[in-house]
């Protein structure tokens, strides 16, 4: 592999330099030959990179500067110093390549999780192995214990624990059974599963993650682009000053040409911007890698930097701030026994697919009620359901479905509606016997996240299409600062623009198709990974793979840490360069010390950046 090849070449160069130095006094010509071999073996990779930049892009870079300095040292008889420069510079480059690969390992290792083969059930009921790329929607596959799942799908038979940390960031295996979704690349536990494929191979969650990883690798953040532009200008300036240092001292200061060229070569080494160039990318890749281990997937490195500038975090409500699943919160009875009322309500609603109906049925199942047979059932669209049970005509639905509401019932309805809850009444023959209050539940971590954001001085806002009363109730429970309700998608975009104008950069978090325009407009768009729509996942800059809002706080913390580390690196690199240049002009710097000081600072900024892996 490249990183090991560079390291072997660098170490070989160092060994040749050591042998040549030992025999230089007694066998000078042999020593020169060994020095030349050390130059070629150690400097080939960097010289090739510098030559490519010079010929193809017509620009100078640090590789060219280092190679030029080594040749200059050899030309005035400092063969050992030149070879030492080549050795340490090549070793520094090899270690940089190795450490960068280390920081990317948590990301690139995802590529290895996707199985090449899948065990499919044929129409004849026979199992056979096929390439996983050939799987189609609707195919039935079998995953045995200990095997990785080859495609996204829904469990049709079996139950098992699934290790899916590489997809969602969950630290422990999760239990999955019939009806649950599983993801390609995750590891099946002790149970055998029969799964129906729900997405083609190129559209699985793992495939989307891989695509994002490629985008991360290709995207160069703005700060790194600035450093690279500065490097090109700076390298030209260093070459010009080096040439002046070669010519002016012998002419005006009575230096020897040998001394002047030696000092010029030291300047060329110590003034090169190697440490400056290495100040950003290792730290950035470490931050991205750390986020990936926690289920925080960045689309590109720019977003890691931008999170530190966010002044407002805007949340969608349903499916983002809340769990997106309505549940029964309260049951009020006006006449009947509560258990019997739950039994009748669950029996009536079991045939409906409406979320409210499913919530009431689940409420009954959780209380072990026995569902009763229905004689007839009729759904009234937009209102509720009517059914015959044991010769009695029952109704369940909106309050407007019932003609007579007592003051007590109306007061109860008003109380729950003011809390942002949905109210469903149940009765028979015109008489109301009970009231179900339902509400989408706020995510357990939401209050903690919003509290942390407030401590950081960051405003929080809710952008939702829901009615104002419901939005205000959820916002009050969560601790949201600003509430914008009854919004259409384009109105959410307008809210983002308004928040940005009033308060500064905005991060928007959502999961639905209607959130995509707002995510695109925000400084940073963040999507819920588990249940987010495809267009939302494509639009977002960051994906919360396990839908854990707590990772927003981690993203902001990591962004601030990245800014601090990069600032430390840049200041340290500049300070070292200035000190080494000053020492050289005072003629108290030797070429070996200049090489060690310069390349040592490069290694230190790389290692400082790797601290973000923790």
Detailed description of the structure:
- The protein folds into four domains: 2-107 and 221-284 and 561-613, no CATH class; 136-200, Distorted Sandwich (Calcium-transporting ATPase, cytoplasmic transduction domain A); 296-322 and 443-557, Rossmann fold; 323-441, Calcium-transporting ATPase, cytoplasmic domain N (3-Layer(aba) Sandwich), CATH 3.40.1110.
- It has 22 helices and 22 strands.
- The mean pLDDT is 81.
- 53% of the residues lie in helices and 18% in strands.
- Helix 2 runs antiparallel to helix 3 (62-75), helix 3 (62-75) packs antiparallel against helix 4 and helix 13 (338-349) packs across helix 14.
- This is Cd2+/Zn2+-exporting ATPase.
- It is a multi-pass membrane protein.
- Residues 113-214 form the P-type ATPase A domain.
- Keywords: ATP-binding, Cell membrane, Ion transport, Magnesium, Membrane, Metal-binding, Nucleotide-binding, Phosphoprotein, Translocase, Transmembrane, Transmembrane helix, Transport.
In summary, what is this structure?
With 614 residues, the protein is of the alpha+beta class.
The shape, in one word, is elongated
Total helical elements: 22
What value does the Rg take, in angstroms?
Answer: 34 Å
How would you classify the quaternary structure? single chain
Q: How much helix is in the residues? A: 40-55%
- Major sheet attributes: 7 strands, mixed
By secondary-structure content and strand pairing, the structural class works out as alpha+beta
What's the domain count? Answer: 4
Please report which band the strand proportion falls in: under 5%, 5-15%, 15-25%, 25-35%, 35-45% or over 45%: 15-25%
Pfam family, one: E1-E2_ATPase
GO molecular function: ATP binding; ATP hydrolysis activity; ATPase-coupled monoatomic cation transmembrane transporter activity; metal ion binding
Keywords: ATP-binding, Cell membrane, Ion transport, Magnesium, Membrane, Metal-binding, Nucleotide-binding, Phosphoprotein, Translocase, Transmembrane, Transmembrane helix, Transport
Subcellular location: Cell membrane
């Amino acid at each position: 592999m490249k990183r090991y090849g560079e390291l072997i070449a660098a170490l070989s160069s160092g060994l040749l330099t050591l042998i040549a130095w030992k025999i230089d006094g007694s066998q000078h010509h042999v020593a020169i030959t060994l020095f030349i071999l050390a130059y070629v073996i150690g400097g080939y990779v960097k010289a090739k990179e510098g030559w490519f930049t010079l010929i193809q892009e017509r620009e100078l870079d640090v590789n060219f500067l280092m190679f030029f300095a080594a040749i200059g040292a050899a030309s005035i008889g400092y063969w050992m110093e030149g070879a030492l420069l080549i050795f340490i510079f090549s070793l520094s480059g090899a270690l940089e390549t190795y450490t960068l690969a280390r920081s990317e390992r948590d990301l690139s290792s995802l590529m290895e999780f996707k199985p090449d083969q899948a065990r499919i059930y044929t129409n004849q009921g026979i199992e056979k192995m096929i390439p996983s790329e050939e799987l189609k929607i609707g195919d039935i596959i079998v995953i045995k214990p200990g095997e990785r799942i080859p495609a996204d799908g829904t469990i049709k038979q079996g139950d098992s624990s699934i290790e899916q940390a590489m997809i969602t960031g969950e630290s422990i295996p999760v239990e999955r059974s019939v009806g649950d979704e599983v993801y390609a690349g995750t590891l099946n536990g002790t149970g055998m599963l029969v799964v129906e494929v729900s997405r083609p191979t190129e559209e699985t969650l793992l495939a989307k993650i891989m695509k994002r990883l490629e985008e991360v690798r290709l995207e160069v953040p703005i700060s790194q682009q600035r450093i690279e532009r500065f490097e090109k200008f700076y390298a030209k300036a260093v070459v010009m000053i080096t040439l002046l240092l070669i010519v002016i001292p012998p002419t005006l200061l009575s230096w020897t040409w040998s001394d002047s060229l030696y000092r010029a070569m030291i300047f060329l080494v110590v003034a090169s911007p190697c440490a400056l160039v290495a100040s950003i990318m290792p730290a950035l890749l470490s931050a991205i890698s750390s986020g990936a281990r926690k289920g925080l997937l960045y689309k590109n490195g720019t977003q890691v930097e931008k999170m530190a500038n966010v002044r407002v975090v805007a949340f969608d409500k349903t499916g983002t701030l809340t769990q997106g699943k309505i549940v029964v919160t309260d049951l009020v009875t006006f006449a009947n026994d509560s258990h019997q009322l739950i039994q009748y309500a669950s029996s009536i609603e079991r045939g409906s697919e409406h979320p409210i109906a499913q919530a009431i049925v689940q409420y009954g199942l959780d209380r072990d009620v026995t569902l009763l047979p229905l004689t007839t059932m009729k759904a009234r669209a937009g209102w509720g359901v009517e059914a015959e049970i044991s010769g009695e005509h029952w109704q369940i639905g909106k309050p407007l479905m019932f003609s007579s509401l007592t003051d007590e019932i109306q007061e109860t309805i008003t109380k729950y509606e003011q809390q942002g809850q949905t109210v469903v009444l149940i009765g028979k023959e015109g008489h109301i016997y009970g009231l179900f209050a339902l509400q989408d539940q706020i995510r357990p971590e939401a209050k903690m996240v919003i509290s942390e954001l407030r401590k950081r001085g960051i405003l929080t806002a809710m952008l939702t299409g829901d009615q104002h009363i419901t939005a205000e109730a959820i916002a009050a429970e969560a601790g949201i600062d600003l509430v914008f309700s009854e919004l259409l998608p384009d109105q959410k975009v307008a809210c983002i623009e308004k928040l940005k104008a009033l308060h500064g950069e905005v991060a928007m978090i959502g999961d639905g198709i209607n959130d995509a325009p707002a995510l695109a407009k925000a400084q940073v768009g963040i999507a819920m990974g588990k249940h987010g729509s495809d267009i939302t996942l494509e639009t977002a800059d960051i994906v919360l793979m396990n839908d854990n809002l707590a990772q927003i706080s981690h993203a902001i913390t990591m962004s601030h840490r990245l800014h601090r580390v990069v600032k430390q690196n840049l200041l340290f690199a500049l300070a070292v360069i200035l000190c080494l240049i000053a020492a050289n002009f005072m003629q108290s710097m030797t070429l070996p010390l200049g090489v060690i000081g310069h390349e040592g600072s490069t290694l230190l900024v790389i290692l400082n950046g790797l601290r973000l892996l923790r």
